[in-house]
Amino acid sequence: MSLHQRRSFMFLLLLFAFLSTHCQTNTSLSDTNILKENLTMLASDEYEGREMASKGAAMAAEFIAKHLEKYGLKPFNKNGSYFQEFPVYVSGYDFNSQLVMNITENDSSITFEPGSDYLIYSPNYVPLTFNKTGLPIVFAGYGITADEYDYDDYENLEVEGKVVVVMDGEPESRDNDFFESDYRTEYSETRNKLLTAAENGAVAMITLPDEQSMSNYGFKLRRILKKSFSLEDDNELTEREDETIPSILLSINGAKKLFRVNGENYYRVRSNMNKYPPNSIKFGLDLSLNYWIKPFNERREAKNIIGLIEGTDPDLKDEYVTLGAHYDHEGVVNGVVYNGADDNGSGTTSVLEAARLLAQKKSNKRPILVIFHTGEERGLLGSKYLTENSDFVSDIVSHINVDMVGRGEEREIYSIGSDRISLEYHQLIESVNSETVNIKYNYSFDGPDDVNRYYYRSDHYNYAKKDIPIVFFYDNMTNDYHKPSDDVEKINFNKIALITDLIYHISLRVANLDHKIKVD
Fold first, then answer.
1. Which among 134, 166, 214, 336 could disulfide-bond with 143, CB atoms 3.0 to 4.6 Å apart, if both were Cys?
2. Residue range 378-395: mean pLDDT, rounded
3. 516, part of any domain
4. Residues 226-247 as b or e (16 or more Cβ within 10 Å = b)
5. Same domain for 178 and 228?
6. Predicted structure pTM score
7. 212 in a domain, yes or no?
């Protein structure tokens, strides 16, 4: 062989080695087309955000069950159903309201829209019904009386029978002895300001937003509109606090409307409160406020979904390997659908695809249970019910939880909790990864001192409480977390495919061990 031929031969060998490695790295067992098709459906507006015990959640449950049947998994429940049904109690408030500012000079009016312009906050301590018209409005600074700081916004201010307008927060100062400088005191709390206004004879309070309250406005809106969910043993109506006067929190848009009619600039007032003492702003308006708030507490049916892939070894038929994801999300909030593509449509479709691959392979000695929980977003309720009311839980040898795996770096995933209960399980998860998909495990949130407490915030925790070895895979998506912007267009399906391959290989490895995983 000539020198030229030898060089050509060596080049071909190197090229072959490179291509082999390249193809092996990028070859996935999972089908990204199937992942995309399933997630696009589950995270569509048609499923209405999949809120627990809702129409959208029922549709999602049927979708998942039909695919489990299509993939060859058997219904696990004794009644021949994929569904583990259980009652859940839903409580909250229905309320309608109208806020009208009447300009007394020309009888024109401005209507404030609930949600976008203001909130009635909080329904737990305002009157359930309120109907008054022609109420005069007076500016009361921060609405604070604090004797220890020699501060009183109500000094020489007559508010009897009027609506007070107050700025959120408290006076700013560099003096540590005056409202504690950088730290807000209890006087800044809405509840305290409301009680002070009522003690001075005001009939309602309107709060102007500062920067801090505006950053939390969306959260406050969702909290007011959000329903509370509880299991049967935990069901109880929240006791209402002693009623006081109505509390109205304006949004930025609502504040602009209020100030527009008297020529003042809301932003200027907010940034120069020391120049605007009580009664310095004249609104020249009357307020009409009419609302009713109706508490409700109703019983609904919720569903976990469980599919079975039977094992090949009859001696191991009572040792279950489980993998799961929660399929619920936030539902519809103020008319907007929260589709939850990453949270947790990504985990749901990943587990569903892993189920297809495992059922197709049929090489697991131990049986594998594929579990889709509901109610994770409402306090881990589905997994709590399952782990406390299912006989098979004591026979589970390990559990994988997949919750948000479609965003962030493609070849990186946060791994949480794998060494809390079993060091052997942690080592197995490490070795399976290095031998298969070989992605980076990020353990930033895995320590017991993690301030985010992620170990306690998803469904795996209810399994861990039963001393079942667990691992939780998570992508740390924050930009669109619990927002309507968590949509399919932002999902990386190659990443979901990698995680799906990973949980497939971990499940098979555990299912085929010649011993049970040791619990430390």
1. 166
2. 97
3. no
4. bbebbbeeebeeeeeeeebbbb
5. yes
6. 0.80
7. yes
